[in-house]
Amino acid sequence: MKFGTVPLEEVEGAVAVHSLRLPGVDLRKGMVLDAPLIARLAQAGITEIVAARLEPGDVGEDAAAAAVAAAIAGPQAEADAPFTGRVNLRAQAAGVLLVDRAGVDALNEISEAVTLATLPPFRAVALGEMVATVKIIPFAVPGEAMTAVGRLFRPLVEVAPYKLRRVAVISTLLPGLADKVIAKTLRVTQARLAPTGATIAREWRVPHAEAALAAALADAVAGGAELVLVFGASAIADRRDVIPAAIEAAGGAIEHLGMPVDPGNLLLVGRVGGVPVLGAPGCARSPKENGFDWVLHRLLAGLAVSRADITAMGVGGLLMEIPTRPQPREIAPAPMPGAAHGPRAAIVLAAGRGTRMPHAHKLSAPLDGEPLVRRAVQAALGSAARPVIVVTGHEAEKVRAALEGLDVVFAHNPDFAGGLSTSLRTGLAALPEETEAAAVLLGDMPSVGPTLVDALIRAIDPASGQLIAVPVAAGRRGNPVAWARPLFAELMALTGDVGARHLIAAHAEAVVELPVEGEGAFLDIDTREELEALEIHAIAARADVDASAALEAMKAEDA
């Protein structure tokens, strides 16, 4: 191909290299210079122009791009029409992209005139999505280059369509794992499956024990499941742990435990009766992309996932800045001189409607002569947490009146009807920027004391990866829960009437469990009967008498 500045009288039939706009002239890059166009250029005073002219054997950019695209497009990858030396390839089915990396590298090595770019191998793609593009850099490709490219022509890009449709989900249970967490996990999982055409055909909830899980696995396979997902109440710590042991007890085998993708490290891949089984890591309860997605989509497309496939995922496997291993810029500011840690706050959620106590405003209802919410707020104020943010919503004025005289900051949530997550977002948004951690208290938990709040906020240590602090008794997790700033963004992303329990499971390695005694961390008031029962115990404690005696005294007063 000839390229350079050409006198106007010699340019007919060549291609314009640059765009040019003048009165009466709209010359665009790539246009063929014909006689009428040359005449207009002459009238505009142009005497020469930069142009390109094909030589014998050269292949024009559109023809070259079309030829390359047609040759490298494999099954379910279709080429668009060429335009300005480019041809895009699109998926003809939803599935997983397969790329011959060595072939792509070899093609791009032949000539700088010919380029091929693709999405990453094994990327999940939708119907019609662009998966690759061929671009010819100059206006033509030399004939010898096209001959060399031709020797490599073979399908390099294809889409493996999703095949599996029936997915079984098994959740194992331990004390303290709330039904809301499982419900949220199922919703997230169904949303993950929806683009693939698969559905949750059936789900089981069984104790976190080998025999129970093995029975559920056998039942799922016998029932026609094409893929089984196991969400454990506890993370898989070893090949001898409950989930891998149950797979083997069901007659299956473990193919690989762990993966060099973060988040997603604690993934398990196995089989039972020829059916793939995935032991999901905790991060799979979150909708964010993680290593679980990488393996799940391959399996749904009917692709085998071997140990070698998983161990090869390390390069590019760090999917984001992991909160438990934050980048230096994300670590909270250094503590003030003489302080044990940076600023820590408390958020008291007091926006709920209390629908199970319809004849009274629950949070302002008296308990031993004091509004329910005031007791919860005083627990926060009695700790070192500052500021104490109180989130109001339903009957906000009554909550404010119940807290009159207390040193708190009010943050109103006008969207309180949207659920607990909206109040949590409101409270987090009201925190000072320098806040390193915050304890989240519920306004209907009057038996939480300041000592517990202090213990929780002091347990947070971002520098050592301790980002969540939870009270625990007999394997059951309670409230309040303290959170470090690196997790605030994930808390802000919650939606609906769901708390943050699934985030605790997703960041299991970042959780500090604080043993507690008594029921204070587990006792919330929902009904009038529960409030009256607590009132009885409060009276008994104050009078140092048995609760039953206090009940009799109350009955006598009523009579």
From TrEMBL:
Pfam families to which the protein is assigned, alphabetical: NTP_transf_3
SMART domains linked to this entry: MoCF_biosynth (SM00852)
InterPro entries: Bifunc_Mopterin-bd (IPR012184), MoaB/Mog-like_dom_sf (IPR036425), MoaB/Mog_dom (IPR001453), MobA-like_NTP_Trfase (IPR025877), Nucleotide-diphossugar_trans (IPR029044)
Broadest EC class assigned to this enzyme: transferase
EC numbers, comma separated: 2.7.7.76
Keywords, alphabetical: Magnesium, Nucleotidyltransferase, Transferase
Domain of life: Bacteria
Keyword Phosphoprotein: no
Sequence ranges assigned to domain MoaB/Mog in this UniProt record: 168-301
One example GO MF annotation: molybdenum cofactor cytidylyltransferase activity
Stated name of the protein: Molybdenum cofactor cytidylyltransferase
The organism of origin for this protein: Ancylobacter tetraedralis
